[in-house]
Design goal:
The protein is α/β, with parallel strands linked by helices. About 50% of the residues lie in helices and about 20% in strands. Strand 4 and strand 5 form a beta hairpin.
Length: about 170
């Protein structure tokens, strides 16, 4: 088993335990990871108690129809952008009626990159009830399609664990 895959499995196990203990339910909105985050979560026994589902929004038409990302936002900023990642997370939270949702949008390659957004550019956002939605930019450049997707999945799981731990610290 690769180090990244092992890390993903351990993060998913920790995430399920944290979410269950905090009584938080989760959802996903995935583009470049193609369901990798949902797959990692649902591989953990007991995940049905905290995971409501995910929307794989690979096409922009799915982002607008299922996640209610405004088409103008995609046209203005591109599908791989902070505003679109934020809207995807908020859309998943609303559509699936969850406490917390994560979104991932990126360029896994090998094609599709530009000078401004090279292959490996990934935005990950978390929407939480009662908190501002936040997004983070990652640049997994020169690592190959499979590794970009694994790194994005790994970071998404890590961010979810951190968000739940932060909620416990602030009493939310």
């Amino acid at each position: 088993m690769s180090k990244t895959r092992q890390g993903i499995d351990e993060l998913a196990l920790n995430l399920v335990a944290l979410a269950r203990a905090a009584n938080i339910n989760l959802s996903t909105a995935e583009s470049c990871t193609g369901g990798g985050i949902s797959t990692a979560i649902t591989a953990v026994p007991g995940s049905s108690h905290m995971f409501k589902g995910g929307i794989i929004a690979y096409a922009n038409s799915v982002k607008t129809a299922q996640l209610h990302v405004p088409a103008g936002l995609i046209e203005k900023h591109g599908a791989v952008s902070e505003p679109v990642a934020l809207a995807m997370a908020e859309g998943a939270n609303t559509a699936l009626k969850t406490d917390m949702a994560i979104s991932v949008t990126g360029i896994a390659g090998p094609d599709g990159g530009t000078e401004d957004k090279p292959v490996g550019t990934v935005w990950i956002a978390i929407a939480q009830k009662g908190r501002s939605t936040a997004a983070h930019l990652f640049e997994f450049t020169n690592t190959g399609r499979k590794n970009i997707r694994l790194c994005a999945t790994n970071e998404a799981l890590r961010m979810l664990c951190e968000a739940i731990e932060n909620q416990k610290c602030t009493g939310l």
